[in-house]
TrEMBL record:
Transmembrane segments: 37-58, 65-85, 105-123, 143-170, 190-210, 215-231, 237-255, 262-281, 376-395, 402-420, 426-445
Naturally occurring in which organism (per UniProt): Pseudarthrobacter phenanthrenivorans (Arthrobacter phenanthrenivorans)
Highest taxon of the lineage: Bacteria
Keywords: Membrane, Transmembrane, Transmembrane helix
Protein name: O-antigen polysaccharide polymerase Wzy
Organism lineage string: Bacteria, Bacillati, Actinomycetota, Actinomycetes, Micrococcales
Length: 459
């Protein structure tokens, strides 16, 4: 093992030990949970902790795979353990032991499916595939043209959207939301909002990665894209997850693959100490009054860490929704929402508010983790299908191909909002990333074909 990997192992082992040991100290818990809940709580912490360590130490690091385990460890592992230890959920839900135990098994089932699919894909690639050749994009004019056009188009859309919103872009969440409502009737305004946000997370990161591989992208276009991407996702619009996803994407694109191995550690520390108080920048008086470092036992029991509670609430319904919206509606809504002529049909069909309303909550801007959505739509079978698909997908988000190089970093950044849910809100971001990656890959393929034909003609 190299010195760097040894240092990684020591740092991650120490960090995870400091976080996990207090989290699973059920001996001090006054709630007296049953043995199966305690053992499963251990698994919800130990499985992602071990998988994260394995992923950052792997010979070929996959950032998206590490982010999956980072999010799972913090939001479903450590957070649920601390909440069970103190006997209180963020929204004050009173859950039966049966529902809590079932929710834990849903998470474990998803993890098992993801691990199985990822491992099978990795073993097949190792057995049947030669070592990938370095990607050289120094002579790819079509790809360079396509990327530049995409960057400038995103810049133009962001400028138009920002001009329409005016000072609401820097006046806090309330002013921003009011601006969205006031301008909603403008044709294509919703599409501009989506493209400015989604493009901010996807396009600058892809362009930076391609330029590092030799693609001739004009630096002014790239700098303009990054600057306007920050404007589109700036903290004053009130979404720390969007801002964080943009920062993760750009940072990961800028640094080396080896340096990316350290990113999950930094993200974990931020999540368990200061994340809840970063809403200070909302600027509307509803956030924290100052940035403060808190102990994980305090941090991880706040409203930001409601993922396990919302999963347990979903489980407690046993498929019976107290609403006119059916599960079929919830299944198609994440797709139809992004089709302009059909989006009105599924307006408001997000699973988070539906579960919140069905379980008697007054506040509906809540998490709906992907495990809960899968269980809601198709119980254990859907959980297996969804997380098997995720395992396969993340295994292919590697740097061995151009498509893998294009998707690894944006997908890793988007996982922070995808895993939190609901899919109704975030599926379009992932679909856009995949479409852009496919288009860029095809442009590169055309460049390669043109070069082959040129060489044949010369011979």
């Amino acid at each position: 093992m190299s010195i760097q990997r040894t240092a990684l192992a020591i740092i991650y082992a120490g960090l995870l030990a400091v976080l996990t040991i207090p989290a699973i100290n059920f001996a001090a818990s006054p709630t007296g949970w049953s043995l199966d809940i305690i053992l499963q709580a251990y698994l919800l912490v130990l499985i992602p902790a071990a998988a994260l360590c394995h992923s950052v130490l792997a010979r070929n690091h996959n950032l998206a795979w590490s982010v999956y385990w980072t999010w799972s460890l913090v939001f479903l592992g450590l957070a649920s353990a601390y909440q069970l230890t103190v006997g209180k959920f963020p929204w004050g839900g009173v859950m039966s032991e049966e529902d809590i135990s079932t929710a834990q098994r849903v998470v474990i089932l998803g993890h098992a499916a993801a691990i199985g699919a990822f491992t099978i894909t990795w073993l097949r690639a190792r057995t049947h595939k030669a070592k990938p050749k370095p990607i050289d994009l120094s002579n790819s004019p079509r790809l360079a043209w396509g990327v530049t056009v995409a960057l400038l188009a995103h810049a133009a859309i962001t400028l138009i959207f920002s001009a329409i919103m005016g000072t609401a872009m820097i006046s806090g969440r309330s002013a921003f939301q009011a601006g969205l409502a006031a301008n909603g009737a403008i044709p294509s305004f919703g599409s501009m909002y989506f493209l400015s946000n989604a493009g901010a997370i996807i396009l600058p990161a892809m362009a930076i990665l391609l330029r590092k591989k030799g693609l001739n992208i004009a630096m002014p276009a790239l700098v303009l894209s990054v600057a306007l991407a920050f404007v589109a996702t700036n903290p004053l619009i009130g979404s720390r997850f969007l801002t964080g996803s943009f920062l993760v994407a750009v940072t990961a694109a800028l640094i080396s693959p080896q340096a990316r191995r350290w990113m999950p550690a930094g993200i974990i520390v931020a999540f368990v100490t200061v994340f809840p108080t970063l809403d200070l920048l909302r600027g509307d008086g509803t956030g924290a009054t100052e940035v403060a470092i808190t102990h994980p036992s305090e941090t991880l029991t706040t409203f930001d860490y409601d993922a396990f509670e919302m999963l347990t609430r979903e489980v407690s319904l046993h498929g019976e929704l107290n609403t006119d919206i059916s599960r079929a509606d919830l299944a198609i809504a994440p797709f139809l929402r992004w089709v302009p002529i059909l989006s009105d049909m599924v307006q408001g069909h997000a699973s988070g508010p539906v579960i919140a309303t069905s379980t008697g909550m007054g506040y509906t801007n809540v998490s709906m983790p992907l495990w809960a959505e899968a269980d809601l739509l198709g119980a254990g079978l859907a959980v297996l299908v969804v997380f098997t698909s995720i395992g396969f997908a993340l295994a292919h988000a590697q740097r061995g191909t151009l498509f893998g190089a294009l998707t690894e970093v944006p997908v890793a950044a988007l996982l922070f909002i995808v895993l939190r849910g609901s899919l109704y809100e975030v599926l379009g971001y992932v679909l856009l990333a995949l479409v852009v990656a496919v288009v860029f890959t095809r442009l590169h393929s055309k460049d390669q074909s043109f070069r082959r034909i040129s060489r044949q003609l010369q011979n």
